[in-house]
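Per reviewer request, we include the raw input and output of the structure prediction for the construct analysed in the revised manuscript.
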Amino acid sequence: MNKLAVLPRSQQAIRPIENLVQPKDKRIVRSLRLLEQHISEPPDYRAIAAALDLSLHHFHHLFAEAMQETPGDYLRRARLTAAANRLRWTRDTVGQIASSVGYASQPSFTRAFVKRYGMTPVRFRHDREQWPNEPTTEMTETCVKLVESDSLHCLAKRYYGPPCNVPGHWADFLASLPEELSRPGQRLFIGLLYDDIRFTQSELVRYDCCVTVNEAFDEQDASTAWPGLHRIDTRPGLHASIRHHGYYAASTDPERRRSVASTYSMLLDDWLAKSRYAIAGKYVVEIYPIPQPRLDPADLECTILVPIG
Protein backbone atom coordinates (compact mmCIF):
# COMPACT_ATOMS: atom_id res chain seq x y z
CA MET A 1 0.00 0.00 0.00
CA ASN A 2 1.11 3.41 -0.76
CA LYS A 3 0.24 5.06 2.51
CA LEU A 4 1.05 6.01 5.90
CA ALA A 5 2.30 9.15 7.56
CA VAL A 6 3.79 8.47 10.97
CA LEU A 7 5.51 11.76 11.45
CA PRO A 8 8.96 12.53 12.84
CA ARG A 9 8.91 15.97 14.42
CA SER A 10 12.05 16.97 12.53
CA GLN A 11 9.97 17.02 9.34
CA GLN A 12 7.02 18.96 10.76
CA ALA A 13 8.17 22.44 9.65
CA ILE A 14 5.31 24.57 8.40
CA ARG A 15 5.37 25.06 4.64
CA PRO A 16 2.91 27.52 3.07
CA ILE A 17 0.46 25.58 0.94
CA GLU A 18 0.87 27.97 -1.98
CA ASN A 19 4.59 27.05 -2.23
CA LEU A 20 3.90 23.34 -2.72
CA VAL A 21 3.19 21.41 -5.90
CA GLN A 22 -0.60 21.63 -6.29
CA PRO A 23 -1.68 20.76 -9.86
CA LYS A 24 -4.70 22.80 -10.89
CA ASP A 25 -5.14 21.52 -14.45
CA LYS A 26 -7.82 18.82 -14.15
CA ARG A 27 -6.19 16.90 -17.01
CA ILE A 28 -2.94 16.59 -15.06
CA VAL A 29 -4.81 15.60 -11.90
CA ARG A 30 -6.52 12.85 -13.88
CA SER A 31 -3.21 11.72 -15.38
CA LEU A 32 -1.79 11.29 -11.84
CA ARG A 33 -4.61 8.94 -10.99
CA LEU A 34 -4.18 7.01 -14.23
CA LEU A 35 -0.48 6.55 -13.52
CA GLU A 36 -1.11 5.48 -9.92
CA GLN A 37 -3.92 3.08 -10.85
CA HIS A 38 -1.66 1.15 -13.24
CA ILE A 39 1.54 1.22 -11.23
CA SER A 40 2.33 -2.45 -11.93
CA GLU A 41 2.03 -2.11 -15.70
CA PRO A 42 4.36 -0.63 -18.33
CA PRO A 43 3.30 3.00 -18.78
CA ASP A 44 1.44 3.92 -21.96
CA TYR A 45 1.90 7.67 -22.08
CA ARG A 46 0.37 7.90 -25.53
CA ALA A 47 -2.86 6.30 -24.25
CA ILE A 48 -2.92 8.63 -21.24
CA ALA A 49 -2.44 11.66 -23.49
CA ALA A 50 -5.25 10.44 -25.76
CA ALA A 51 -7.56 9.96 -22.77
CA LEU A 52 -6.90 13.61 -21.88
CA ASP A 53 -7.43 14.75 -25.48
CA LEU A 54 -3.81 15.92 -25.69
CA SER A 55 -0.92 15.18 -28.00
CA LEU A 56 1.90 13.22 -26.42
CA HIS A 57 4.22 16.23 -26.59
CA HIS A 58 1.64 18.58 -25.07
CA PHE A 59 0.90 16.10 -22.27
CA HIS A 60 4.59 15.83 -21.33
CA HIS A 61 4.94 19.61 -21.41
CA LEU A 62 1.87 20.27 -19.25
CA PHE A 63 2.83 17.53 -16.80
CA ALA A 64 6.37 18.83 -16.31
CA GLU A 65 5.09 22.38 -15.91
CA ALA A 66 2.51 21.37 -13.28
CA MET A 67 4.48 18.75 -11.35
CA GLN A 68 8.08 19.99 -11.78
CA GLU A 69 9.09 16.52 -12.98
CA THR A 70 8.41 14.27 -15.98
CA PRO A 71 5.67 11.60 -16.01
CA GLY A 72 8.43 8.98 -15.97
CA ASP A 73 10.06 10.53 -12.90
CA TYR A 74 6.71 10.73 -11.11
CA LEU A 75 5.87 7.09 -11.90
CA ARG A 76 9.32 5.89 -10.82
CA ARG A 77 9.02 7.72 -7.51
CA ALA A 78 5.46 6.45 -6.96
CA ARG A 79 6.59 2.87 -7.64
CA LEU A 80 9.50 3.05 -5.21
CA THR A 81 7.37 4.72 -2.54
CA ALA A 82 4.80 1.95 -2.93
CA ALA A 83 7.58 -0.61 -2.66
CA ALA A 84 8.93 0.99 0.52
CA ASN A 85 5.47 0.86 2.06
CA ARG A 86 5.07 -2.81 1.18
CA LEU A 87 8.52 -3.65 2.53
CA ARG A 88 7.49 -2.17 5.87
CA TRP A 89 3.83 -3.15 6.13
CA THR A 90 3.56 -6.54 4.37
CA ARG A 91 5.37 -9.87 4.50
CA ASP A 92 5.74 -10.12 0.72
CA THR A 93 9.14 -11.12 -0.63
CA VAL A 94 11.35 -8.57 -2.36
CA GLY A 95 10.69 -10.33 -5.67
CA GLN A 96 6.91 -10.15 -5.18
CA ILE A 97 7.12 -6.47 -4.32
CA ALA A 98 9.35 -5.74 -7.33
CA SER A 99 6.81 -7.36 -9.66
CA SER A 100 3.85 -5.59 -8.00
CA VAL A 101 5.33 -2.16 -8.70
CA GLY A 102 6.20 -2.80 -12.33
CA TYR A 103 9.82 -4.02 -12.31
CA ALA A 104 10.66 -6.87 -14.68
CA SER A 105 13.36 -8.31 -12.42
CA GLN A 106 14.47 -8.16 -8.80
CA PRO A 107 18.00 -6.93 -9.67
CA SER A 108 16.64 -3.96 -11.65
CA PHE A 109 14.31 -3.13 -8.78
CA THR A 110 17.12 -3.37 -6.24
CA ARG A 111 19.33 -1.03 -8.28
CA ALA A 112 16.53 1.56 -8.51
CA PHE A 113 15.72 1.21 -4.82
CA VAL A 114 19.35 1.66 -3.74
CA LYS A 115 19.66 4.72 -5.97
CA ARG A 116 16.65 6.34 -4.29
CA TYR A 117 17.00 5.21 -0.66
CA GLY A 118 20.72 4.52 -0.35
CA MET A 119 20.27 0.95 0.89
CA THR A 120 19.02 -2.41 -0.36
CA PRO A 121 15.35 -3.39 0.07
CA VAL A 122 16.33 -6.07 2.61
CA ARG A 123 18.28 -3.61 4.76
CA PHE A 124 15.50 -1.03 4.46
CA ARG A 125 12.98 -3.59 5.72
CA HIS A 126 15.00 -4.49 8.82
CA ASP A 127 16.68 -1.16 9.69
CA ARG A 128 14.71 0.03 12.71
CA GLU A 129 16.45 3.43 12.60
CA GLN A 130 14.22 4.13 9.60
CA TRP A 131 11.12 3.77 11.79
CA PRO A 132 11.20 6.05 14.84
CA ASN A 133 8.09 5.43 16.93
CA GLU A 134 6.03 8.26 18.37
CA PRO A 135 4.93 8.26 22.04
CA THR A 136 1.62 6.44 22.44
CA THR A 137 0.99 6.34 26.19
CA GLU A 138 -2.64 7.50 25.94
CA MET A 139 -3.63 4.56 23.70
CA THR A 140 -3.58 0.80 24.04
CA GLU A 141 -3.89 -2.02 21.55
CA THR A 142 -7.36 -2.77 22.92
CA CYS A 143 -8.52 0.43 21.17
CA VAL A 144 -8.13 -1.32 17.79
CA LYS A 145 -11.20 -3.02 16.37
CA LEU A 146 -11.62 -5.21 13.29
CA VAL A 147 -14.49 -3.98 11.11
CA GLU A 148 -15.96 -4.80 7.72
CA SER A 149 -16.35 -1.54 5.83
CA ASP A 150 -18.50 -0.94 2.77
CA SER A 151 -17.18 1.08 -0.14
CA LEU A 152 -17.60 4.82 0.32
CA HIS A 153 -18.52 6.78 -2.82
CA CYS A 154 -16.70 10.10 -2.78
CA LEU A 155 -15.75 13.20 -4.67
CA ALA A 156 -12.07 13.90 -4.04
CA LYS A 157 -9.43 16.56 -4.57
CA ARG A 158 -5.71 15.75 -4.49
CA TYR A 159 -3.25 17.73 -2.36
CA TYR A 160 0.49 17.49 -1.71
CA GLY A 161 2.40 18.59 1.35
CA PRO A 162 3.38 17.77 4.95
CA PRO A 163 0.76 16.75 7.52
CA CYS A 164 0.92 20.15 9.21
CA ASN A 165 -0.71 21.51 6.04
CA VAL A 166 -3.65 19.08 6.09
CA PRO A 167 -5.97 21.60 7.85
CA GLY A 168 -5.16 24.02 5.02
CA HIS A 169 -6.01 21.32 2.48
CA TRP A 170 -9.40 20.90 4.12
CA ALA A 171 -10.08 24.64 4.22
CA ASP A 172 -9.34 24.90 0.49
CA PHE A 173 -11.44 21.81 -0.27
CA LEU A 174 -14.47 23.06 1.65
CA ALA A 175 -14.23 26.43 -0.07
CA SER A 176 -14.36 24.67 -3.45
CA LEU A 177 -17.52 22.69 -2.65
CA PRO A 178 -21.07 23.88 -3.29
CA GLU A 179 -23.11 24.42 -0.14
CA GLU A 180 -25.16 21.26 -0.61
CA LEU A 181 -21.99 19.13 -0.45
CA SER A 182 -20.36 20.86 2.51
CA ARG A 183 -23.01 20.51 5.23
CA PRO A 184 -21.94 18.35 8.20
CA GLY A 185 -24.54 15.82 9.33
CA GLN A 186 -25.66 15.04 5.79
CA ARG A 187 -22.36 13.66 4.53
CA LEU A 188 -19.08 12.27 5.76
CA PHE A 189 -15.75 13.95 5.08
CA ILE A 190 -13.02 11.49 4.17
CA GLY A 191 -9.24 11.93 4.12
CA LEU A 192 -7.15 9.45 2.13
CA LEU A 193 -3.49 9.35 3.15
CA TYR A 194 -1.13 7.57 0.74
CA ASP A 195 2.41 8.04 2.02
CA ASP A 196 4.62 7.51 5.06
CA ILE A 197 6.56 10.73 5.60
CA ARG A 198 9.46 8.80 7.12
CA PHE A 199 10.53 7.90 3.59
CA THR A 200 8.54 10.34 1.47
CA GLN A 201 9.66 13.95 1.02
CA SER A 202 7.24 15.93 3.15
CA GLU A 203 6.28 18.26 0.29
CA LEU A 204 5.32 15.23 -1.85
CA VAL A 205 3.07 13.44 0.65
CA ARG A 206 -0.25 12.74 -1.10
CA TYR A 207 -3.56 13.44 0.62
CA ASP A 208 -7.06 13.40 -0.89
CA CYS A 209 -9.83 15.44 0.72
CA CYS A 210 -13.18 13.80 -0.06
CA VAL A 211 -16.88 14.16 0.60
CA THR A 212 -19.31 11.25 0.32
CA VAL A 213 -21.92 11.23 -2.45
CA ASN A 214 -24.51 8.69 -3.52
CA GLU A 215 -23.50 5.88 -5.86
CA ALA A 216 -25.33 7.38 -8.84
CA PHE A 217 -23.52 10.72 -8.60
CA ASP A 218 -22.25 11.69 -12.07
CA GLU A 219 -18.47 12.24 -11.99
CA GLN A 220 -18.40 13.97 -15.38
CA ASP A 221 -21.00 16.52 -14.35
CA ALA A 222 -19.14 17.10 -11.08
CA SER A 223 -15.73 17.58 -12.67
CA THR A 224 -17.26 20.05 -15.15
CA ALA A 225 -19.01 22.05 -12.44
CA TRP A 226 -16.13 21.82 -9.94
CA PRO A 227 -12.76 21.38 -11.70
CA GLY A 228 -10.23 19.29 -9.84
CA LEU A 229 -12.79 16.97 -8.20
CA HIS A 230 -12.77 13.30 -9.12
CA ARG A 231 -14.86 10.30 -8.13
CA ILE A 232 -13.22 7.74 -5.81
CA ASP A 233 -14.83 4.61 -4.38
CA THR A 234 -12.91 3.40 -1.34
CA ARG A 235 -11.90 -0.22 -0.95
CA PRO A 236 -14.50 -2.39 0.84
CA GLY A 237 -13.50 -5.22 3.15
CA LEU A 238 -11.70 -5.86 6.42
CA HIS A 239 -10.11 -2.90 8.19
CA ALA A 240 -8.32 -2.22 11.45
CA SER A 241 -10.18 0.70 13.02
CA ILE A 242 -9.20 3.13 15.76
CA ARG A 243 -10.60 6.42 17.01
CA HIS A 244 -8.29 9.43 17.11
CA HIS A 245 -9.05 12.33 19.45
CA GLY A 246 -6.55 15.15 19.71
CA TYR A 247 -4.32 17.13 17.38
CA TYR A 248 -3.45 16.34 13.76
CA ALA A 249 0.16 17.45 13.32
CA ALA A 250 2.76 16.75 15.99
CA SER A 251 4.05 20.32 15.62
CA THR A 252 0.78 21.67 17.09
CA ASP A 253 0.62 19.16 19.97
CA PRO A 254 2.20 20.63 23.15
CA GLU A 255 2.20 17.21 24.85
CA ARG A 256 3.69 15.39 21.84
CA ARG A 257 1.36 12.49 22.65
CA ARG A 258 -1.98 13.38 21.12
CA SER A 259 -1.16 13.90 17.44
CA VAL A 260 -2.43 11.65 14.69
CA ALA A 261 1.19 10.48 14.33
CA SER A 262 0.95 8.84 17.75
CA THR A 263 -2.26 7.08 16.76
CA TYR A 264 -0.76 5.79 13.52
CA SER A 265 2.38 4.68 15.34
CA MET A 266 0.42 2.66 17.89
CA LEU A 267 -1.77 1.13 15.20
CA LEU A 268 1.00 0.27 12.76
CA ASP A 269 4.27 0.00 14.68
CA ASP A 270 2.67 -1.79 17.62
CA TRP A 271 -0.64 -3.48 16.79
CA LEU A 272 -0.13 -4.37 13.13
CA ALA A 273 3.48 -5.50 13.62
CA LYS A 274 2.33 -8.01 16.27
CA SER A 275 -0.79 -9.17 14.44
CA ARG A 276 -1.17 -11.81 11.73
CA TYR A 277 -2.37 -9.15 9.29
CA ALA A 278 -0.68 -7.01 6.63
CA ILE A 279 -1.81 -3.84 4.91
CA ALA A 280 -3.92 -4.61 1.85
CA GLY A 281 -4.55 -1.27 0.17
CA LYS A 282 -2.96 1.86 -1.26
CA TYR A 283 -4.10 4.32 1.39
CA VAL A 284 -5.58 4.67 4.86
CA VAL A 285 -8.95 6.28 5.41
CA GLU A 286 -9.70 9.07 7.90
CA ILE A 287 -13.44 9.58 8.49
CA TYR A 288 -14.58 12.95 9.85
CA PRO A 289 -18.23 13.55 10.77
CA ILE A 290 -17.23 17.23 10.96
CA PRO A 291 -14.36 18.47 8.75
CA GLN A 292 -11.14 19.70 10.33
CA PRO A 293 -11.47 23.49 9.87
CA ARG A 294 -14.75 23.45 11.81
CA LEU A 295 -13.18 21.82 14.90
CA ASP A 296 -10.89 23.08 17.64
CA PRO A 297 -7.39 21.85 16.62
CA ALA A 298 -6.96 20.30 20.09
CA ASP A 299 -10.29 18.50 19.88
CA LEU A 300 -10.07 16.82 16.47
CA GLU A 301 -12.03 13.58 16.15
CA CYS A 302 -11.85 11.02 13.38
CA THR A 303 -11.98 7.28 12.78
CA ILE A 304 -8.93 5.79 11.07
CA LEU A 305 -9.42 2.70 8.89
CA VAL A 306 -6.43 0.69 7.66
CA PRO A 307 -7.24 -1.97 5.02
CA ILE A 308 -5.80 -5.33 6.07
CA GLY A 309 -5.71 -8.88 4.78
